[in-house]
Design goal:
- α2 (36-45) packs across α3 (89-99) and α3 (89-99) runs parallel beside α4.
- Helix content is 29%, strand content 28%.
- The relative contact order is 0.20.
- The protein is built from seven helices and nine strands.
- The longest helix has 17 residues, at 179-195.
- The two termini are 33 Å apart.
- With 212 residues, the chain is an alpha/beta fold.
- β6 (103-106), α4 and β7 form a beta-alpha-beta unit.
């Protein structure tokens, strides 16, 4: 088994391009959360970097709707599991390009537009551990801020999380590597082999994630 590699945020394009599909990583630094409403807002309203209260350049946007508990003077993260990334496919390519996002994190992978943006802009997709929301919340050292809480609510707001040794796996990289697509094709090929259907040349299923 590969040894996990520690990475610190913010990352540069050069840093991101050193990561390859299959790398296990432990992430430390500030990440932001973002689900449907934040992505829709960034995509359509296009706030400038100065209008967003947190620096997005060099950070990771985590597809996560965290559960928070109010504590004296702030918030404590109770659960922070990944949500399905594919539905954000229509937004992510522009957000990566306009805000200098160096990492996207969630579960299930993304589609062709995002993969192209990862290659062009120098960024990677991280697969976080599903079903381990409380464990992942324990990797949040501090809830450092929140944006759009009143407008979008707890799970759809953008949270700034200071994390330490947050575990993830690189499954899409800046070199065109896509572990999700490779597994899909291998699984489909094996299914046909086991069913006695034989080789396939043109898969009858749609390309993954293009139209979420």
């Amino acid at each position: 088994m590969k040894e996990a590699r520690g990475i610190c945020l913010p990352m540069t394009q050069k840093d991101a391009r050193t990561l390859k599909v299959g790398d296990l990583v432990l992430i430390s630094g500030n990440i932001v959360t973002g689900r449907d409403r934040i992505h829709n807002y960034l995509f359509n309203m296009r706030p400038t970097e100065k209008e967003v209260p947190f620096p997005l350049n060099g950070t990771i946007i985590y597809h996560c709707g965290p559960l928070m508990r109010k504590i004296h003077g702030g918030f404590e993260c109770v659960a922070a599991g990944p949500t399905t990334s594919a539905r954000l496919e229509i937004y992510e390519h522009r957000i990566i390009a306009e805000y200098g996002i160096r990492g996207v994190m969630g579960k299930g992978g993304m589609g062709a537009q995002t993969l192209s943006a990862l290659q062009k802009e120098g960024s990677v997709y991280f697969h976080a551990v599903g079903g381990a929301a409380v464990y992942l919340a324990a990797k949040v050292k501090k809830v450092a801020g929140v944006w759009m809480l009143d407008e979008f609510g707890m799970t759809e707001a953008m949270w700034l999380l200071d994390v330490e040794d947050f575990p993830a796996l690189v499954t899409m990289d800046a070199h065109g590597g896509d572990l999700h697509e490779a597994i899909d094709r291998k699984s489909f090929h094996e299914f046909r082999r086991l069913a006695g259907i034989g080789e396939y040349r043109n898969p009858p299923y749609p390309e993954k994630g293009v139209n979420p």
